[in-house]
Amino acid sequence: MTSPATAAATRRPRTTIAVLALACTVAVVLSVAVGSVPIAPDRVVSVIVGHVLPWHIGPPATGVQAEIVWEFRLPRALLGLVVGASLAVAGAVLQAVVRNPLADPFVFGVSSGASVAAVATLTLASGVLATVSAPVAAFAGALATTLAVFLLAQRRGRVTPGRLVLAGVAMSYLLSSVTSYLVLRASTPDGGVSEVLSWLSGSLAAADWGDLGLPALVLVTATVVLVLLARTLNAFLTGDETAASLGVDVGRVRLILFAVTSLLVGVVVAVSGAIGFVGLVVPHAVRMVVGSDHRWVLPASALAGGLLLVVVDIAARLVIAPSELPVGLLTAAVGAPFFLWLLRRSGRSEA
Amino acid sequence: MSDPDGRPAGARLSIDGVSVEIAGRRIIDQIGLTAESNVVGLVGPNGSGKSTLLRTVYRMLRPAAGQVLAEGRDVWSVGAREAARVTAAVVQDNPGDLELTVAECVATGRVPHGRLLGTSTADDRRAVERAMAAAGVTAFAGRDISTLSGGERQRVQLARALAQEPRILVLDEPTNHLDIRHQLELLALVRRLQVTTLVTLHDLNLAAAYCDRVVVLSQGSVAAAGTPRDVFTPDLLHAVFGVKAAGLTNPLTGQLQLVYTEGNQP
Predict the structure, then answer these.
(1) Quick check: is A45 in a domain?
(2) pTM, rounded to two decimals
(3) Which among A313, B46, B48, B189 has most CB atoms closer than 10 A?
(4) Which residues in B lie closer than 8 A to residue A158 (C-beta atoms)?
(5) Does residue A290 sit at the B interface (CB-CB below 8 Å)?
(6) Yes or no, beta carbons of A287 and B98 under 8 Å apart
(7) Where are the domains of chain B?
(8) CATH number listed for the domain at residues B12-232
(9) How many CB pairs under 8 A join A and B?
(10) b/e per residue A124-152 (b: at least 16 CB within 10 A)
């Protein structure tokens, strides 16, 4: 017997994913078109197609336009897509692993760890630190913090969701205070504070093709692995004991999932800085549409997260044009009210 | 072994000299029991080690000594997924705030049968539908678990366990938080299943009514084992539970009915 609910569960997610994929494509083209030198969308498409395929469609773009599209705006739009997708997928996984809807990469101290390391290289710039670039330091800081949180949450070889969240929150506060101290200490005329602040707020402004490769590779690999583990993630939602009875090695799988998400987040925080709220909000919004089955939640979160960040980045460039806002500032400004709105709504439709 | 309902032989569950230590303290000590094609009740005071023993069966807790054999094979050496294809559990758990729908939850019962790719096969879908029908939860397949009553949730967990197509079923306090009708219905349903069942129960009268055999645990050891009538004697209940007890015959069912009061031997 096929109940209406089962039918909906097999049809709606596919439609949602198709719509999101289309919206992402449109958003990327728009993001490339918008700017101090507006470029018609058909020109944008023609330049991109011209680079990807050996023939041209439509009128060829002028040299300058082609350069703006290919060298500056497209890498930025694609980076937004990759960063948003990575943060959203990481958030969806972490929420499942600790069975807590408030979990996101930033609750676990991943972002504060990255920030401390990056700010230290930007402001101290002496000795060993001077030889390391901020992105590399950020990545190392993210991984080290994740590991520390996991070890702190461990007791007699077992890690429970509650202790993970507590250890993460405590670590976040600790590292944030260190970051604040470093910023204060550097508040001298040439202490590099503006660079630090822009990095802390999160920005896609410095994107180029070189930033894209690693995050894109990690995103695709991690998402494929996670979708293969989707049923195991669903089993996590039933509780640790039940998951164990279903043949899931709860401790080991939790550690693997944690490592994969910190890799996802570390790589993108390293190139874009700390962009908050995407990992928290997007999985919730996605679950309201496709339900909690991770076979759909993960791909839909990736697309929705990418879409959100590309769109917010367009806004960040328009709000105070010709200047621009750090995109992380806007995601918080947009994400926080949206999250509160989600809280006010009751759960999914109970019909 | 006796088979009062004429069920076909199920898998044999054999717990052999199992001890568990947590933080250096011995929680259960050399427990042995067997169950085959029947419902075995595990009773005992709080802290006597019932749930701990069950944890060694569904692979949440590795015993410090002894073996748990399902169909003759040590559950701790066959691998987690293979063990979960034989043994399913309904346990006291804390599922948190991210809820699945009933159908999604029952489908997690197919995890141990799944291949690497997370796609569900026709077998999976059939098993899920059969399990939901057997537990009587098909009508709310599309609803969020959080919208269900306690009795409905417990039936969903049972359906999830049945979707594993187990030959051994482990139930930890399945009647907790259920009203009397749902308690009786759930245990009657478990009896109808053709699965070897090990169930912990606090209510000795439920154990007497629905279990072929009972095993009494006290301070981590087996205090008595046998049919309810043989085991639930006033002396034993006083020794293990510290209550004054008497055995009557239930006028509705003809089964053993215990009555108790606090205090010492009559």
Answers:
(1) yes
(2) 0.85
(3) A313
(4) none
(5) no
(6) yes
(7) 12-232, 233-266
(8) 3.40.50.300
(9) 143
(10) eeeeeeeebebbebbbbbbbbbbebbbeb
Banded model confidence at residue A223, pLDDT cuts 50, 70, 90: very high
Could you check whether the bond before residue A322 is cis, i.e. omega within 30 degrees of 0? yes
CA of A287 vs chain B CAs: smallest distance (Å): 9
Amino acid at A136: V
Neighbours of B13 (CB within 10 A): 26
Contact check, Cβ <8 Å, B81/A5: no
- The verdict on ipTM greater than 0.90 is no
Give exposure, A168-190, as e/b (b: 16+ Cβ within 10 Å): beebbeebeeebeebbeebeeee
Q: Is residue A97 in some structural domain?
A: yes
Q: A251: how many CB neighbours lie within 10 A of its CB?
A: 14
Contact between A241 and B118 using a beta-carbon 8 Å cutoff? no
Phi, psi of B211 (to 5 degrees): -105, 140
For residue A21, being part of any structural domain is answered with yes
Domains contained in chain A, number: 1
Residues A237-287 pLDDT 10s: 888 899 999 999 888 888 888 888 888 888 888 888 878 889 988 998 898
Closest alpha carbon within chain A to B96: A99
Range of the domain at A37: 4-344
Report chain B residues whose CB lies below 8 A from the CB of A99: 94-98
Q: Which amino acid is at B242?
A: G
Contacts of A248 in chain B (CB under 8 A): 80, 111
Inter-chain touch B59–A247, beta carbons under 8 Å: yes
A247 with B92: Cβ contact below 8 A: no
pLDDT at B9 over 50: no
Contacts of B95 in chain A (CB under 8 A): 99, 237-239, 242
